[in-house]
Automatic annotation (TrEMBL):
Belongs to the sigma-70 factor family. ECF subfamily. This is RNA polymerase sigma-70 factor. GO terms for biological process: DNA-templated transcription initiation. It holds the Pfam family Sigma70_r4_2. The keyword Hydrolase does not apply. The keyword Iron-sulfur does not apply. GO terms for molecular function: DNA binding; sigma factor activity. It comes from Sinomicrobium pectinilyticum. Residues 29-95 form the RNA polymerase sigma-70 region domain. InterPro entries: RNA_pol_sigma-70-like (IPR039425), RNA_pol_sigma-70_dom (IPR014284), RNA_pol_sigma70_bacteroid (IPR014327), RNA_pol_sigma70_r2 (IPR007627), RNA_pol_sigma70_r4_t2 (IPR013249), RNA_pol_sigma_r2 (IPR013325), RNA_pol_sigma_r3/r4-like (IPR013324), WH-like_DNA-bd_sf (IPR036388).
């Protein structure tokens, strides 16, 4: 009797992908998650080809490590965690060309464990304090650039200053923020999450 994979529950499919019928069960899992996973990738990358490539990479990893999957655990959590890590690796390899928009930070922060969430909150609190301690002109320029996502040209026009002045203020702000983090003992644990969430490319780009 032919099995109806479309009606199979997720746990059954995860068990089946480890067996002889694995390809059929795997294909059904792919159909169920491909749209959601693609939208997640696209929301961060805003690049159709890269989003499709990462979608394929994620499911290749699922297939290659299918025998290690614990079917009693939430598969969607595992899937999006793999996607997040794959996106981070992609961003690291393209960091010279890629700068994340501020809203993508919260997207990358999704699907992380409670411990990481706590550290993430600690990091954002520290960053807020570091920004608040910047000299007024540096703070205004930095917030317009990194938090509002404005270009150097837009900031220069808003403030009536040159593009080069904007650039120098950003460089100064980044150095001061880095110094602030370096003088806090909790820097190591916060910076580890900073790397894992790829916010390195938004706030600390250029270090």
């Amino acid at each position: 009797m032919k099995r109806n994979y479309k009606e199979a529950d997720e746990t059954s499919l995860l068990i089946l992908i480890k067996q002889n019928e694995g390809e059929h069960a795997f294909r059904e899992l792919f159909y169920r998650y491909q749209d959601r996973l693609y939208r997640y990738n696209q929301k961060i990358l805003r690049n159709r080809e890269a989003s499709e490539e990462i979608l394929q990479d994620v499911f290749v990893k699922v297939w290659n490590y299918r025998h290690q999957i614990d079917e009693s655990r939430d598969f969607s959590f595992l899937l999006f965690k793999i996607a997040k890590n794959t996106i981070i690796n992609y961003l690291k390899s393209h960091k010279a060309k890629q700068q994340l928009a501020p809203e993508t930070i919260s997207t990358l922060a999704t699907h992380i464990c409670p411990e990481e969430t706590m550290i993430w909150q600690q990091y954002t609190a520290m960053l807020d304090k570091a920004i608040a301690e910047l000299p007024e002109r540096c703070r205004i320029v930095f917030e317009k650039s990194r938090l509002e996502g404005k270009s150097y040209e837009e900031i220069a026009e808003d403030l009536g200053i040159s593009r080069n002045t904007v650039r120098l203020q950003i460089i100064k702000s980044l150095k001061l923020i880095k110094s602030y983090f370096n003088h806090h003992p909790e820097m190591d644990v916060v910076f580890s999450l900073l790397l894992s969430l790829a916010s390195l490319f938004t706030v600390f780009k250029g270090f």
